[in-house]
Write a structure and sequence with these properties.
mainly beta; single chain; four-stranded antiparallel sheet; globular; 2 helices
């Protein structure tokens, strides 16, 4: 994976898209070939992209974040995060919905398993939130109540190794759900998850040796990989399916990440996907973007340089979260400074894509992976509320 040392300057694009990352006109239509020219040299990032929402003065910086989507009302999605002393859930307006005290973290993830439960637009696949609880030395699992958007415990599974990296991945069928967790051996463990009447069972099915300890991981549910950033700054991927060869493939090709702070995946239409990697340079925290269709570095951006603390977390999704977040979202965690407390920053993906001149289209949605295609939907003109188009009547 070739990472060019020059990064695209975004300040020249600010006039067209605005410093506020709001919903902009798409940079390109679906099906266009993305630009492949070498990015122009840029001055150091200086307040290039300002996020649209901020959660200020948190008691502690977060170490990881994940997204939960509502099955029929995108704007009722939520952001979950851990900080070593609590697991918290916020809405998209940065209001706290629920929290649980405990030594949770440093990682968490959310996926959906099984077939939809119920009928009509509220039919939903059960959500599963997974993290590690150091107090009981176990993986712990929660679901999120659709009506009240609060955390509901599902159970726990004992483990003999506290993971630095933890992520979930949806298998090729609705009932396949996997948990990946790092060990300091170094290695990566894969568990098959099954929700039962008594909770969640986690069965160890595979162990993969690594060159260096994994710091972060993200499940690629569409193409069947798990991507890792390790302590040496490398990007590594492992095949998700247990039937595949157990090989940890280094795909960085010298594109090392300085003090990785997190990974995220954004899917587009037509088989395109972007891997986002947080880089924790305290003077100018950056988020690097890699095009996974060509395994190349495709640009970088920074969020809100004013009172910027050290980057502590990074997550991204293309899930439709309504309004300016209808094309997805980037979430970054920052540590405290002398002038500002720890923060979580929200940024709409369409603003990032337009500023970096990346193609923008509606990719596979998290709740739909592994399920039959849904009916055609009308264009989103209602701030995230989608409307089904009924079949045309017979003549």
């Amino acid at each position: 994976m070739e990472r060019k040392t020059k990064r695209r300057g975004l300040s020249g694009l600010a006039a067209g898209c605005g410093l506020l990352l709001a919903a902009c006109e798409p940079a390109s239509e679906v099906g266009e070939t993305p630009a492949t020219e070498t990015p122009e040299a840029a001055a150091p990032a200086d307040n290039l992209l300002t996020p649209s929402d901020r959660i200020l003065d948190l008691p502690r910086p977060i170490s990881d974040a994940a997204y939960w989507t509502h099955p029929s009302l995108p704007f009722r999605g939520a952001i979950a995060a851990v900080d070593g002393a609590r697991l918290a859930l916020w809405d998209l307006e940065a209001q706290l919905l629920d929290e649980r005290e405990g030594r949770f973290g440093p990682a968490l993830d959310v996926r959906y398993g099984g077939s939809p439960e119920g009928d009509g637009p509220e039919a939903a696949r059960p959500a599963l939130l997974a993290t590690y609880d150091a107090d009981i030395e176990a993986f712990v699992f929660f679901t999120i109540d659709l009506a009240d958007r609060v955390l509901a415990p599902l159970g726990w599974a004992q483990t003999d190794a506290a993971p630095q990296a933890l992520c979930l991945s949806q298998g090729s069928t609705p009932d396949e759900l996997y948990l990946f967790a790092s060990t300091d051996a170094p290695g990566l463990r894969q568990f098959a998850l099954e929700q039962t009447a008594d909770g969640v069972e986690a069965t160890l099915i595979r162990e993969t040796p690594l060159v260096a300890e994994a710091l972060h991981c993200v499940g690629d549910d569409v193409f069947g990989y798990v991507y890792l950033s390790d302590a040496d700054g490398a990007l590594v991927r492992v095949a998700r399916d247990p039937s595949e060869d157990v090989i940890a493939e280094n795909v960085s090709n010298g594109a090392l990440i300085a003090r990785s702070t997190g990974l995220g995946l954004v899917y587009q239409a037509g088989g395109q996907a972007f891997l986002l990697a947080g880089e924790g340079d305290t003077a100018n925290p950056s988020i690097l973007i890699y095009d996974l269709s060509t395994i190349t570095f495709d640009g970088a951006f920074s969020l809100d340089a004013e009172n910027m603390g050290a980057a502590t977390a990074l997550s991204a999704t293309n899930a439709n979260l309504g309004g300016v977040y209808r094309d997805g979202m980037v979430v970054a965690g920052l540590g405290a400074t002398a002038n500002a407390g720890a923060r979580i920053l929200y940024a709409p993906w369409n603003g990032v894509a337009n500023a970096l001149e990346l193609p923008l289209s509606r990719g596979p949605q998290p709740r739909d992976l592994g399920l039959p295609p849904k009916p055609a939907r009308a264009p989103d003109q209602s701030g995230g509320v989608q409307i089904d188009i009924p079949p045309a009547p017979e003549p």
